[in-house]
Each structure stands twice: as C-alpha cells, then as structure tokens.
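PT: before anyone asks, these are the final sequences, not the draft ones from last week. 872 residues across everything. Please model them as a single complex and drop the result in this thread when it's through.
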Amino acid sequence: MVYYAIKRVLLLIPILIAVSIIVFLLLDLAPGNIIDMMQIENLTQDEYQELLRQYNLDKPVIVRYGLYMFNLLQGDLGKSDYTGLDVWQLYTSRFPNTLLLAVSSLIFGSVVGIPLGIFAAKRAGTLADNAVTFITLVGMSIPGFWLALLLMLQFSLKWQWLPAGGTEGFRSLIMPTICSGFVLMAGTTRQTRSSMLEQLNADYLRTARAKGVPEKAVIRKHALGNAWIPILTTIGGALSFSIGGSAIMEAVFTWRGVGSLAVDAVINRDFTMTMGCTIMTTTMFVLIQLMVDLLYALADPRIKSAYARPKIKRRSAA
Amino acid sequence: MKKIRILIAVLVTLASLFALVACNKDEDKPSPSGESPSTSASSSESPASQSPSTPASPNITEDNEAPSALPVEEEGVVFADHIDYMIGDNVGLINPHHPAGDGSSHNNTCRMIYDTLYYNNPDGSSVPMLATKYETDDYQTWTFYLRNDVYFHNGDKFTAKDVIFTWQHALESVGSIASSNWDYIVEAKEIDEYTVEFKTATPYGNLLFNIGISVSGILNERAIAEDDVAGYYVGTGAFILDDFSPGDYLHFTRNDNYWGDLPPTKTQKWTLVSEASARTIMLQNGSAQLGGVSEADLSLFRDDDNFRINTVLSNNSVSLMFNLDDDLCGDLNFRMAVAHALKTDEIAIFAMGSLGISVDNATIWGYEVPYMNTNLPKVGHDLAKAKEYLDASVYGGETVEFTIMSGNDNMAAAVQDQLAAAGITISINPMDVPSFMVYTSAVENHAQMFSWFAMFSQNPVDTYRVNFYPEANNNRMRYNNPIITEMIDQSASILGEDAQREHYYKMQEIVSAERPCIPMYWMPGAMVYRANLGGFITSASAHYDFRYMYLTVE
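LR: through. Structure below.
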C-alpha cells in the first residue's frame, strides 16, 4: 500500500512536466501577449519592444520554458507577469476559499445524494423513484449561474436571510454550496442508485436474505459495501474538478477562489500566473486521485491486495 | 405506471411554466429604453429618457462638487462611518508606475491614497494640492512651492525629495501611465526642502494637468525601498489603504493626520463584484450603497425613491475604424460612403440601449476634452450621398470584413444592415479580446474595418497622440499624416488659449476630413447609489474622486 502511494506520488513528476510543457506551448500559441492585454495607450513601438525584453517575450519559447522550470525546481513559482505579485502568495490566499467550497459542496452532495440514491434504488420503478430521477435530471441540467441568481433573488433580496456574495462567515457559504453541490448531489444520487440496483439483484444478497439477515444489514453492510467503488469514483472526480475552482460560481457569488484567478491569468496572457495555477491544480488533482485510489482499497480488500508490493519468490536451496 | 408517467409530465410542465414566469416577472415593468410613456427617469440620467433619434447631452451628475467642499451637516443628520462600494473592474495591483497599473478603479484608488501637486477639477481647472503655488516665466522652467505640513502614511515628512523621486521613478517605468504624464519634464531640481524646479523640453502650457492627474501622485521612496509591492500603497492622501486583497477588495481608513479637510466617512470598502446581477441585488438588499449596474437593470431603480442614478459618458468613443493600409479602406470615397450610410443614433441604441448616446459631432475628439471644434460640417446619414461616394470609390461589390470584439453583436448587426442599404456588403468577424488585440495591432493590422475605442485624453496635448501618431499603440488605423504628426509634436508648446484653440481646431478639421474612423457612440457608465449618499465626483476622464463621499443617517 505504502509502495503504491510512493509510486503514485513519484508519478506526479512526469505528469507535471508533461502538463507544464503542454500549457506553456498552448499559451505561446495563443494570440496576444501580456503587453497587448495591458492595452497601454501611450506606448511607442520602441517602448513596446523594451517591454517585450523586460518580460523575456523576445526570447524563444524553449528558453522561456527553461527559465521557468529552473525557478520552479528551486521551489519558486515566480511573480505574476501582470501584477508583479508572488504567485504562491496569490494562489494560497485564494485556495482556502476554493477548498472550503469544494469540501462543503462534496459534503452536501454526498450527504443528500447517497441516501437519496439508496432510497430510489430500494423503491425502483415506483413513484418515489421517478420523483428522485426527476430531481436528479433537474440537478444535472439546470445551469449553475441561473440557479445561483434564483437563490440570490429569494434568499438575499426577498427574505434577506443570506448575503448575496462575499467570503465572510458561514452564511456566505450556504448558497455557493447549494449551487455547486446540487450537480454533485444529482450525479451521486444517480450513481448510487445504479450501483445499488446492480447489487440489490445480486445472488449473494438473495442468499443473505434467505439466511435471515435483517434488511437494514443487507443494504448497509452487503449492498452498499460493494457499491462504494463507483460512488467513490464519482465523488473523487467531482472533488478533483472542484479543486480547480469554478470561475462562474466565483463571479456570481463574489467568492474569491482560484478559478477566477486562473481565468484572469489566461485572459491576460500572464504566463507565470497561469503556469502557477496549472502546476498547483495538477498537483492537487493527482493527490486527490491518489486518495480516492487508496480509499478503494479500504472499500474493497481485493484492490488492497492488488496494491501490495509484488514479492520476489526465493528459490529454495534445495 | 401510465398514471405515474402522466403525473411526472404534468409536474415537469408545471415546473417549466414556473421557471418561465419567474424569469419574465420583471418584464411588466417599464422598458429600460425609455420608450414607454410611463417610464420616468430621474433627473440625473437624462440619456435614459431620450428618444433614440434625439439624443441630448447627458447630465453628468448632481454630485460634481469641489473636492474640498464638505457636505453641510444639518441638524439631526449625521454621517455613517462606513460606505460599501461595489466595483466592476478587477484591481490586481496598486502601482501607477507599473504598465498594468491603470484602469478606472485603480486610478480612483490612487486619488484616495495619493495627493498630487495640483488637483484637476472636472471643469478642467487646476487648483493647488501639495503645492501651494507655482511660478513660470516662459512655461519651460517651472518653480513649485510645496506645503510644509504634509506627512506620508508611514510618518515620513513630505519634502521636495519625494517629488524628485516620483519624477525619476516614473521615467524609469517604461509603459506606465505615470511615465506618460511625467515625461514632459526633462529636468527636476530640488531648490530647497519645499521648493522644486521643473524644466520641460519646450514651453508646455498643460503641465498642471499632467501633474494633477491621480496617477501622478507623490510616492514615498523609503516605503518602496522597503517593500516593492506594499510600498506603493503609501501616499499622503486622505485615506490609508490598510487592507488590499488583489482582485477582491480594497479597504480604506481615513487618514486622521491628513493636512486637508477630513473626509466625513471613516472607512470605505471597495469590493469587486464582477457579476452585474449580483451588484443589482446587493444594492437592493443594502449590502452596498454604490455600484455600477447593467443597462437592463436600471429600470429597477428608476422609480425607486431610495436610489439615484448617475450616468457618465467617457471621453472615449466606440468607433468604426478603417485600416488605412488596406486598398479599399484607404480610399477616402469608400470611407465617406460608409460615414454617410451609418445612422449612429440607431447604432448607439442597439449597442447600449437606453444609455446609448451617439456621437453627434462632425469632429473626431473627446467628449469633454477642451477645444472641441463644433463648427465642422456634419457627416450624417444620407443614403444618396453614400451611394454617390460609393460609385466614385474602388469598391467593386466585394464583401468587406468587419472585425469586432465578441459581445458587440448588436452593434455589428446594425452596421451590417445599414451598410447593406447603401450597397456595401460586410461580413462580421467576432473575436475574443486577445485575438482582437493582435489581429488589429498597430504594428500589423489584418482587419479591413473594425470597431475599437478612439481614446481621448482629457489633456488636448496628448489626445491625438494616442490615436493618430505614427506607431502609437492605439493607432490601429495606421494613420500617418505628416502634417498631423508635426502638429501633435507642436501641441505641447502652443501657448495661449486663442493659439491653442486655432491649433486644435485645425487638427480636428484635417483629421475629420480624412475620416480614418467614424465615432459612433460615447462609452457610457451608470452608477446607482442610495439616495442618502453623495459627495463623489465623476467625470468623462474616468478619474473619479470618492474621498469626500458621505452617507447620511438619521
């Protein structure tokens, strides 16, 4: 297990190198540069060339990438080309908000979604199941920003219970959590329902019931125990994506996360900031996926044995 | 099972209907464009109530008070300690000496935390601020006498050394907005602790404007040496920037050691709320007292006595520009045909709704820039003339490319229809901002016709340099007329009101006759604020002053 975890963490290095090359090249291929995006009115062409030199944009892409990676290897994510502010500081000032929203959405989505999925699976084909399916379809298809505005109109404007935006206090977290978590809840419900349905019809459950195991234990211990893997995959995937931030949700709720930071950086052609966000998000993504993989092992002993370091058979002396 | 399906279908239908009703609930209210007779706009937003065909000069604001004119504290009325203002543009850094240190909210922040030697009033006059007076005999050597009772936020005393440092630092900051304002000064000398002498390359009559703009604020050398980021937050201004989260919010606390009149409000928080709908809701629920809203949402505030609307037009005009290097667009007859084919008043409404105010002048000049030549013959909509010019042009019926930035589709569609009526076929080429910037670059413009801002500085000396000087960054039209180039170079040294008027009138006459661009509409902005809020100053130059903003409470 430890061997597997170490192997996965080491795998992060080639992944980061590959991602950084791809992103750096894509940014270089994209039209415009940071000086164009500054839209400086009173700039002569000589000054433009001087700024290109100051930002190293007169150098070939391979040289610029080399310089960036040289600094990165020393643990320096650099300073934003656009603002001159430290990328690490900017990222870490926003990341707690993103993490908070991602985790709260995950909790909301799981706490509501998993029981709802079990509920629907147990009552497959009934009116209750259809109602749950309808809710999940709405959850999957409703645009997040639209739901956000509806919630704001009701809770912030009409009833004035919750603040319309900001990142101050628990109350400002409620609406962004519901909006982000609603899609996750829908996905988790559908996944739980389908996994549970698969298990509920399995022979071993029929055997368990025939042996007199109480229905609650059949569902919780046996069915849910085997349905965990796909549910974990859904939740892990959702968390990985949430950790990159959601620029739309952040804009609507004035929630200062890394999503808007990354989007602004790309729009401004801020190489250093974009690369910083990419490196950090990729690292988080890989680590979350590793956590999910390790949780698989907890959920399924067969996977745990597969993670074990292969033992080299010693030949007997005889 | 069939019954269940029917039930679900009914539920889905009901939910959809509910959603549609919720979305359209506000459509019963008066139209924002002001066409409805029942709409009554507030007195401070006359553009909204104008008919599309008769746009009138906008009323800038009733709050245009002198910066030091403190509100009169009536009996029983006190001022709130704190004001929340929602800004719509991202402030990523505070540093007027950085190429990216520009933008409305950035520059307004500079006015809060820095003082300048002189202060530019919205009417164009300049009044002393950190300087007490100036002397000049030839408009080339200027002596400024400084106040001796001013302290920076970090406790340092303000002296002539700080002025010299700010000038030097600005000159070293290539591409910064500060450098473009200070670079007319070629030599600066400290005469004594409270006297400085500036020399300009040629006699220069508008120096007070340059040093009075908010981004020409005086910096503190020690603070910048200690911290090359936060050091720029230190000024002598009426407010101290005590908390700044880039791209998020700015928190100001009143500088109680300020040398001038103390602002009535102790703290102000400016928060970036990028989504316009969120700003509307936050204004309505009282989370903030001031903020810009979308044109569509203005109708929610028009008839509400709790709010006032402030509409401001910028000096910049959204223009249809021609790439003069292009064979077709380089033909004056073709440009005149386009100019006569367009109905700019309609385009303004299509593009900006009730806030759309077309450029109603024949000249190409900024909205509030001094010396606008209003005597030039108007080049308005005249289809017969358009066709006459078109026949005389090199246009052979080909499709002309019209490049726009995404989001300007309404404007482009209106242009397309109007040009089609004159027999000109165009194809619309929408692009995202970075692609547009490169595609229409001043160095190599690939577009034929395109829509962009004609940017006009409040200072007439610079106002043509930005757009019409060869190789200037905003000269995307690739305009190059040696006579205009020479006149731009001479502008700084033209002294005396009559001579300046004659000079600028002539420049406008030449450029307008060549029609390198067709100004279509002024860039509008609308701010909504609580009825009990006042004291902020807005102007077409987009340099606003919020220092003496106040909120009265019973």
